Queue: 4 jobs
Job 1
Amino acid sequence: MKHTDIKDIFTKKEYIGTTVTVCGWVRTARDSKNVAFLALNDGTTLQHLQIVIDKNGDCVLPEEAAKLGTSLKIIGKVVANENHGTPEINAEEITVLGICPPDYPLQKKFQKLETLREIPHIRVRTNTFNAVFRVRSVMAAAIHRFFQDRGFVYMNTPLITGSDCEGAGEMFKVTTIGYSDKYKSAEEYYADDFFGRKAGLSVSGQLEGEVAAMALGKIYTFGPSFRAEKSNTLRHVAEFWHIEPEIAFCELPDLIEFAEEMIKYIIRDYMEKCPEELKFFEERVEKGLTEKLLNVVNNDFAVVDYTDAIELLKKADVQFEYPVEWGCDLQSEHERYITEKIYNKPVFLINYPKDIKSFYMKQNPDGRTVAATDLLVPGVGEIIGGSERESDLTKLLNAMKDKGMSTDDYKDYLDLRKYGTVPHAGFGLGFERIIMYCTGMQNIRDVIFYPRTVGNIR
């Protein structure tokens, strides 16, 4: 049905004095002897449009129209409110599109986020999630624009793969057989399966992305990744969205410069295009959010060597839950201390010990570290993990051997080092984590539509 978006009623002054048709859901309702008021929202803006019904006039207010959650079509004249000048509609005709019974879950004005996670199909109607998912859409568009404007080719890497990019074994198995006791061995089982070998959902499109970069120079992927990591932290879900550029003829300092440019671009675009949502998050979710984001876009990021960071943490007058020693994999408490207490801005941590990083990262001349970087941001921790990739075939084979990996599953990847290898680098940006940072939302489950976690799927 033809109708006008409520956002347009608020942003385009030419609607004042005209008769329009609007549709939406009732957010609040007030009634008195002579007049009734409905607050209508259609999802195009956080603002609710006030509908005024003169009970002494010709417009009839159906009893079910004043129930929270009921959907309506309303025809009426747009006028400026006498007290504050914002648009409202004097209703002339009200049509109920869908009634809503008293057990509607959003009867209470404020509900805990934990409670709303139990009703993901309904929570999107709240102001908080209305804002979150509109911001998510805007930021996704900004990411594509950033790469497209810089000549990157958008690639769709496979979601079903026969290799584990991270080598950690945290993959979901893909099979058409399911449980069966008729096979004597795993080899026999997989030989009879759909692909004739073991397959899983991709944890990253990086390996295939490197293949594309060796032909197209600059590529990026933007899609879902899957990790069967039994973690119930505020930052982990089993299915998340991943942005992964791969750049040929690129070394670690170039990659760091590029990543900083990308983060600043995304945040600036969000602040420019979503002022209403940013104001909402500032008031309701994180005080000082705007100042925090401005601190990011207006300052250079710090670049700190892992070894130096370990020394700073060891000198810190803090009792960490996890002890800090050179060679340890930094925990969230360490990452946040570095960004929030020491530098108070995003930090690129570089040159990690090779034993705690993936096989494909370029080995530094010291023999102990690799040319890797994590971007740590205040309030979230790591949002980017990247590295220069090992381009030397012999060193790559030795790294795989040290980690007990089979080279048979990585033949295509190894061929890249055999046929015209070049220095190249790339990173992965967790989309949900940058959304968390920009909105102040503390739990990753609250920035993704249907979160998938251990023991939870619907």
Job 2
Amino acid sequence: MNILHMKYAVEVAKTGSINKAAEALLIAQPNLSRSIRELESELKITIFKRTSKGMSLTSEGEEFIESASRILSQVNYIEKKYHDGLPNKQRFSISVPRASYIADAFISFSSKMSLGPAEFVYKETNSLRTLRNIINGDYRLGIIRFARDYDTYYQDYLNEKKLAYDVVSEFHYVLITSKESSLAQLETIQPDDLKSRIEIAHADPFVPYLPISEIRKDELQNEDGRRIFVFERSSQFELLSNNLDTYMWVSPLPQSIIERFGLVQINCPFNQRMYRDLLIYKNSYKLSEIDKTFLKEIELSKKRCFI
């Protein structure tokens, strides 16, 4: 595939016009039209719909232009780095579950960023999106979370996708609620104590090869109860702090979070299901020194959080 033709297609998509793109690229309009046709013929797709109002992308074209833009950005970076002598930039990227002990590690890790150009990317999301982020090359590292019962499903999937993996931590969930909640006053919490309460939960479980409906049923056992689904950590803590009827199952928290939001975390003997956080990355990727520094901070955070 001709990189130049790819560049032409991206410019046409940007301007929505062959004429405008030809002017911006400083080439003749017939030559640009021919290059686009050759590209479509080579790929065996239709990138643009040609109308009286200009050029618009087909669904296949949208997908191609998104990929082409990413490739051209990487090509541009390489050219600048080796032709223009760009200084080396510290780079770190990771996609993780919504876990406070991991966020705590990242905060400590970020303070170790040395002087000079640097780019750190920290993304909180679910396991499915983290897997896609690593497979697509958008992030170098990922951490996925799942119940240990599903270990075989994940191992098979990771091996199939040629991803390396290492256990970061294993734990059972603790219950968190406001220290002002009547739950916090109980000597021991039993399942019946939670039936009238509102559970805060993340709404996007995932296990390879299994339907989401089955996973949701397994993870959210009290289907007849009241539940609020959230997608990021800030809102969950605000809800827990201000609504005394709420509770949540989470991995152990840093003391700073507990104190900031006026919470308590309680070990419940009836809920001893084990969970696993797994570091993943491509088989072809070699962990850098900066990656290893972050993993050391994870271990230190576990010592602060896990009892």
Job 3
Amino acid sequence: MPVLQYKCKSCGKTFDELVGKYDEAVVCPACGEIAERDWSGEVYSATGKPVKKCGGNCRTCGGCK
């Protein structure tokens, strides 16, 4: 299960969330609205090291190598 970064469009809060799937709906803990994935956060590979050339969008990526 991945930990992803989200940002609420309603209140602006950014937070990390452990999700079961990448497309799972996530609710903001501050205001209760549906939050969107924040692609500006740090991206790490499965080894925990920062990935140098990764945009964070796993759907369009060939995988962390």
Job 4
Amino acid sequence: MPVNRRVVLAARPVGVPVPSDFRLEEAPVPEPADGECLVQVSYLSVDPYMRGRISGRKSYAAPVEIGQTIVGNAVGRVIASRSDSFEVGGYVHGNLGWQEYAAASDDGLRAVDPSVAPLSAWIGVLGMPGLTAYYGLLRVAGVNSGETVCVSGAAGAVGSAVGQIARIKGCRVVGIAGGERKCAWVTDELGFDAAIDYKGENVTDALRAACPDGIDVYFDNVGGPITDAVFQHLNVWSRVAICGQISQYNAVDASVGPRLLWNFIPKRIRAQGFLVFDFREHDAEALAQMASWIRGGQLKYGETVAEGIENAASAFIGMLGGANMGKQVVKLSDA
């Protein structure tokens, strides 16, 4: 019988996570109960929100406890089923955690179609990151044709989709990313109108040049000094969709701020945080639209792929430091 290898939380990270905060364990392959499927995982998702889940802080979801399998989305093949909803051989997506085999209730799984897009896309552009981009831009910010949209973390899984959807909707798009290679990718491959390298440019000055008419929508993935710079260029009645604050996730002490909210008063700026689950009832419609854009070549995606569950922790640590371009995934088995 195969062994189930899984990654568990060994210690709560202080500041930047280190490999010793995680532990690779072996356990028997679980047996599915009534209403469950046994899934052999093909790809694990690695996402910034996981940093909060392993910190122990109170949040919108329960933290991962010491010794518990790291939470996370995954996609794979059903190899045993005691469910009326899923048959052996089908492919599913769900919160399966960082493990090679997972027994999961059928009400927590969604069928995926590998003929529409590769399996890995269902935890990326057709999964939580893509839906986050879609809802944050279209429902939270309410973008309109002709507006200028600025997105931070533009070369990440969410930001890269945000910019392309904004272009589809007729907007001018300016991305902020770290490094010349990432900036070239979002402009040359993804069609952003401009990109700002926060590592090599003065962001405030670069925004002034790239957004001469100001910014109508800011999709915030990073927070910190980059967001401070953007606030100074927001237009009257502009909107800010607050998706993430990755620049702050490893901070031991909270930085001073936000310091520039006085901009919001005379300009009547609206800022709103959101979670992808807020719009769950619209997932089928959103995924159908995203899949149509992918088939039509309007929506592209990139991936950074690590191989093997033993490299999941290092992929996560690298992603938090900006090592990935596009969606960071971990490949565990061939489809």
